[in-house]
Amino acid sequence: MFENWDELTQQCRQCQKCPLCRTRHNVVVGVGNKNAKVMFIGEGPGENEDLQGEPFVGRGGKLLDKMLNAVDLDRNKNIYIANIVKCRPPKNRDPKPEEQDMCIDWLRNQVKLIKPKIIVCLGRIAAAKIIKSDIKITKEHGIFFEKNGTLMTAMLHPAAVLRDPRRKPEAFDDFLKLREKINEICPETYDI
User: Are the C-beta atoms of residues 120 and 114 closer than 8 Å to each other?
Assistant: First the structure.
């Protein structure tokens, strides 16, 4: 475990633990306020993220930013966003379990440094790895779970909402529930 962000970021960018390192352009460590009380976690970088070195910057990221903005959250101000795997899986496929296992310590170290009060998992893969392996994302999104003293919730992945726009209202409802929970347990999030 690394005790500071500079060391963590430097070592993470040099990682070669799994074959994903061979095809990456950039290691996507994360973005946001490193003192945030709310942390968002996705599954892994896509093509745009790999090219730009930042999570959620494609079409799904633009939708995520709109929903965040609607509840007074901002990736550059009061939240932190990371992924389970830091390198893009080829053709944006789901990260394999062994790739997740080889990369998860980077994320654990990020969580340890940030100490979030709320973790939001974006999509089934992140929710299954972080919250519980048998999560049913379409039925259990927006529900809060307590794990090791941290509140966690799963939300529909922005890319899934773009594929099925009928899900936008329920996805946005999850952001409203998140805002309520933030106001309840860590209202200082909005003072940053």
Answer: no
